[in-house]
Inverse folding.
């Protein structure tokens, strides 16, 4: 019913009232609804990747070297990137008309889709391999000049870990299989500001964090290695978009079974409602 010109009888009998009498408001509402839902999924994809990688690196480092290569203060900084900055960067993109070109999500669809699980597990696995390679083969990768200094290697692990997340944050802008992860990136200036600010803060932490952040200054060569290893998240992301693992079907079979039971029970309840 129309909110302005509609009658009170029509308003009471209708399920939806258009307050401004403009049918385009329905289109805008659907666009914004899909955009908000996609923003939540983007943030979840990014956050779960960071958590999986950080957990494995901290555990393996603690078991193999009696302490984690990532200090508690460093993890707090990573947590700030993951929870605050990433949420602002990924949740502030404006909706586009392309959101209406895809089918809507099903009512009982999993919030984390198979496409997302593929990206999460694939990116986490690649990040773990890169960071463990630095941890156990640092001198061979960096060279004897800087690789024999344990503080330098641990700082490079922290620096590479952060750059991996920054590059993967750009990957997380796309939930589909489209290869252009930079599409409309300049339409969201806050995303660019957060990325630039995070890079600046990370450089200051590495150079001047000292004992508080357990970092030692890196030379240009070590920085180049850290950024180069972090940028591998982009080509690997393109590879991940070409494959998809049915994680929800096989790994979470119990959850799916529970959902199916819920659907059946709901259908029975609907049939039992008297007319």
């Amino acid at each position: 019913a129309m909110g302005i010109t509609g009658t009170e009888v029509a308003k009471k009998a209708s399920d939806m009232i258009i307050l401004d009498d403009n049918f385009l408001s329905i289109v805008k509402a659907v666009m914004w609804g899909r955009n908000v839902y996609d923003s939540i999924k983007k943030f979840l994809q990014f956050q779960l990747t960071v958590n999986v990688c950080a957990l494995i690196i901290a555990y393996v480092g603690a078991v193999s070297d009696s302490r984690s290569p990532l200090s508690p203060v460093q993890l707090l900084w990573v947590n700030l990137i993951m929870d605050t900055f990433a949420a602002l960067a990924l949740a502030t993109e404006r909706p586009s008309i392309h959101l209406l070109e895809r089918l809507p999500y099903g009512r009982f669809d999993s919030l984390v889709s198979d496409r997302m699980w593929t990206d999460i597990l694939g990116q986490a696995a690649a990040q773990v391999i890169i960071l463990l390679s630095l941890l156990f083969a640092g001198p061979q990768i960096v060279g004897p000049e800087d690789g024999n200094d344990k503080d330098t290697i641990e700082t490079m692990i922290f620096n590479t870990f952060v750059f991996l997340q920054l590059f993967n944050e750009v990957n997380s802008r796309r939930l589909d299989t489209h290869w252009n992860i930079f599409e409309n990136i300049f339409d969201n200036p806050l995303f660019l500001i957060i990325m630039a600010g995070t890079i600046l803060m990370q450089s200051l932490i590495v150079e001047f964090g000292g004992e508080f952040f357990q970092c030692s200054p890196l030379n240009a060569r070590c920085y180049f290695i850290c950024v180069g290893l972090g940028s591998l998240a982009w080509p690997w992301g393109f590879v991940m978009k070409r494959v998809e693992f049915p994680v929800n079907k096989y790994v979470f079979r119990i959850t799916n079974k529970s959902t199916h039971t819920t659907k059946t029970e709901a259908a029975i309840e609907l049939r039992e409602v008297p007319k």
User: Anything to note?
Assistant: Confidence is low (pLDDT under 50) at residues 254-275. The two ends are 25 Å apart (CA to CA). Residues 24-65 form the longest helix (42 residues). The CA atoms of residues 66 and 274 lie 66 Å apart.
